[in-house]
Amino acid sequence: MPRSGGHISAAPPTLADVAELAGVSRQTVSNAVNNPDLLRADTLARVQDAIDKLGYQPNRAARSLRTRASHLIGLRMPALQEGTANAMMDRFVHTFVEAAAETGYHVLLFYGDPADPLDGYDELLRSTAVDAFVVTDTHLGGQQTTWLQSRRARFVSFGRPWTQPDAKHPWVDVDLAYGAEIATEHLIERGHSKIAWIGWHKDSLLGEERRSGWTHAMHTHGLSTTGLASRTEDSISSGKAAADAILDETEPTALVCASDTLAMGVLHSLFERRLRLGEDIAVVGFDDSQVAQTVPPGITSVRPPLEEAARELVKALEELLATPSYAAPGVMLKPVLTVRGSS
Amino acid sequence: MPRSGGHISAAPPTLADVAELAGVSRQTVSNAVNNPDLLRADTLARVQDAIDKLGYQPNRAARSLRTRASHLIGLRMPALQEGTANAMMDRFVHTFVEAAAETGYHVLLFYGDPADPLDGYDELLRSTAVDAFVVTDTHLGGQQTTWLQSRRARFVSFGRPWTQPDAKHPWVDVDLAYGAEIATEHLIERGHSKIAWIGWHKDSLLGEERRSGWTHAMHTHGLSTTGLASRTEDSISSGKAAADAILDETEPTALVCASDTLAMGVLHSLFERRLRLGEDIAVVGFDDSQVAQTVPPGITSVRPPLEEAARELVKALEELLATPSYAAPGVMLKPVLTVRGSS
DNA sequence: ATGAAAGCGCTAACAC
DNA sequence: GTGTTAGCGCTTTCAT
């Protein structure tokens, strides 16, 4: 499709303009665009010519009004976390927008008050601005999904329905217990046996999930976990504090961290102790953040397959929008371990 | 506005539904929403009641069709750069979406083939999907802005019109020559005099800009710059190579880097040489990325005021959409230096 | 201050 | 296969 239609006027051409130029009715042009098989080959060619010549593009508002579909997917912007290494959501948004584009959907990014997980959805729903939503922070509780369901809104989620085992919406998630397991096994293969875990508080579903992978790998290989686990906040300073405590008490030779942020906390502890990352001690993180990728000598990290997750979600979205009653089983994806100098 | 309208039916209420419930005509309801001052207080109250009861929200498609305004701002997703510390654009997107929300605008994120800087714009323009665009990567050349201008599209840019001094569109940028200057002066204050510059190739406008700040600060303080500057790619490995060369040859006590990515390259060099960042040598970066924030002992970095930039752009956008002929002078913002352990 | 009529650009349903 | 008719939900005249 040529970019320069040779047409600069303020008002874009309409169906009627094309129809007139091609010498057919408006409906025929509409069909040429939406059901080309209905036209005779020569008519189609003539209409297509006129479309190209005018640079015609259907008006989205008019089409939406008529078809009751906006071809827009709503995505509430995840809160920005400064001072952490957490940027997984940004990478997810990137890949989701890209995947959605391939199926003719655009993404409507909206903002919601961080204090209210429901803020923003209602307005878009009521004004029929979007066809569906992608919900991302399901581990924060099922408020969003429960509410969307009660409003009969269409949506898919990146993240399993942790607290509602009977939820019916399509979802995609990453098996991060498995992630912790391969991370731990990687360290065992490298000859470590005193492998510590630095994770989140007990009330974090995500945290317990990841922790179980570590426990499982340790026990499978007949290794003890006593004195090797700690639970803390997801921040640099608490990661450092946890590392300080565990290094003093149990002297592990390797640490697995529930996030790259915690891993960076550990690095702060090592820096202070003048220990060499990857030589004196091994560290593995989660998320494969830019931080893990760039800090010397590179932090080995569990990498969630975000590209695949985005594609799966778009696929589910397509089916959901085509079949109102669509109910799919959740999809669980496996992460891979990106090995770098830290281990 | 109550979130639960007590109304669950599939079809959202329309103006007509509200009118019937309130016992007025449709236009009156429309006026109640768009020109409340036109109504008598009691009528307004009655209509408002009906609106609340039904949870009415104007249909966006219908409104757009009629007013020829979508209240959507198009933003093409910047390419994702893995293996670097560059995430400034993500932070910009965050703050822009937030700022836009305050004025009733939502952001339509779209994808464009990275190989074609123009890809994606045309379709949205022709289908009248967005009211305006925000263009972000102006330093890559003026292709996007030139083309948008020729199409009479409305847009603002984050980034000055480097190659077109006569461009008329509103823009906001950050004075990073000044950023390099305060970074260098900070190091001079700390007692350094052999301060190296690790920057980009000569054809990078952004790079030359930043470099000039370093040169200026050095000369102002009577310090020599010979043998202290290098030009390279924006990547970890070339940052390391540049640092290796300059550390061997000139033995500077401090380095200013054109990006946090290059600063991380320097860190790789230091790691190999077993030098202590912030003790044996000082390093300052650009962008105040998550990497600079989290790596021990923290990298001093020039922080662009993205929040302010986003707000300025939204303001310009509002005026631009209100006044078609609106022409504003560009806005140049000053960055601040976030001082951390690396200096 | 409120109401009636018209029409934005498109597609679904039906006629020919 | 192609054309005609109607109407999606809203706002902009214009009349009252």
Sketch the major β-sheet of chain A. 6 strands, parallel
* DSSP strand tally of chain A: 12
What radius of gyration of chain A results from the CA coordinates? 26 Å
CATH class term of the largest domain in chain A: Alpha Beta
Helix content of chain A: 40-55%
Write down the CATH topology of the largest domain in chain A. Answer: Rossmann fold
Structure annotation, total helices of chain A: 13
As a percent range, the share of strand residues of chain A is: 5-15%
Mean pLDDT of chain A: 93
> What order do the SSEs of chain A take from the amino end to the carboxyl end, as H and E?
HHHHEHEHEHEEHEHEHEHEHEHEE
The unreliable regions of chain A are 1-8
Spatial order of the strands in the main sheet of chain A?
A: 2-1-3-4-5-11
Helical/strand content category of chain A: alpha/beta
CATH superfamily of the largest domain in chain A, by name, is: Response regulator
| Assembly of the depicted chains | homodimer
Shape category of chain A: elongated
Largest interface: A-B, 68 and 69 residues
Number of separate domains of chain A = 3
Give the name of the CATH architecture of the largest domain in chain A.
3-Layer(aba) Sandwich
Termini of chain A, distance in Å? 51 Å
Describe the 3D structure.
The structure is a homodimer of 343-residue chains. Chain A is 43% helix and 15% strand. Chain A has a 6-stranded parallel β-sheet with strand order 2-1-3-4-5-11, with helices on both faces. A 6-stranded mixed β-sheet of chain A has the order 7-6-8-9-10-12, sandwiched between helices. The first copy, chain A, is of the alpha/beta class. Chain A starts with 14 loop residues before the first helix and ends in a 5-residue tail after the last strand. The first copy, chain A, has 3 domains: 44 residues, Orthogonal Bundle (434 Repressor (Amino-terminal Domain)); 131 residues, 3-Layer(aba) Sandwich (Rossmann fold); 128 residues, Rossmann fold. Chain A has 13 helices and 12 strands. The first copy, chain A, is elongated, with a radius of gyration of 26 Å. The longest helix of chain A has 17 residues. At the A-B interface, helix 4, helix 5, strand 2, helix 6 and helix 11 of A face helix 4, helix 5, strand 2, helix 6 and helix 11 of B. Chain A binds a DNA duplex (16 and 16 nucleotides) through helix 2 and helix 4.
